[in-house]
Amino acid sequence: MGCGCVSASSDRPLTQMVELDSSPAGALILVDGQPKGVTPRKQELTKVTHRIELVKEGYTKCDTYIAPEPKSFLAHVYTFGVAFWDSDSFKSKYLFELVPVTK
Questions:
Q1: Distance CA 29, CA 62 (A)
Q2: Any idea which architecture 3-97 has in CATH?
Q3: What are the tens digits of pLDDT across the range 18-31?
Q4: Which H/E stretch holds residue 98?
Q5: Sign of the Cα pseudo-torsion (32, 67, 9, 1, in order)
């Protein structure tokens, strides 16, 4: 019974699930200028640099860039078949501390 380890690829862009959160919660999330929901939120992003903006009334707008790492897929090949494990458990979490607007 032999075994080996190979990488699997597909035509889909490599992605990573990221968790976007803010303190306080409830900030509008814009990814590359497109609204995606409010914090806290899990968002799947492609492996490129993305502009992240968080907007909440009464707080200074947060504007930054993140570059998530891709999911890695490993296949352990056994004589009776192939089993894939998706490394979705390796997530990136981003917590943004929002600063109140001062008057």
A1: 10
A2: Sandwich (2.60)
A3: 889 999 999 999 99
A4: none
A5: negative
One-letter amino acid of 95: L
In order of 11, 17, 28, the CA distances from 88 in angstroms are 18, 7, 25
**Is the pTM value of this prediction over 0.85?**
no
Number of Cβ within 10 Å of residue 22's Cβ equals 23
Task: State how far the Cα of 5 lies from the Cα of 86, in Å rounded to an integer.
Answer: 14
Query: Maximum Cα–Cα distance for the chain, whole Å?
Result: 72
List the structure tokens of 72. 């890695």
40 upstream amide cis, omega within 30 of 0: yes
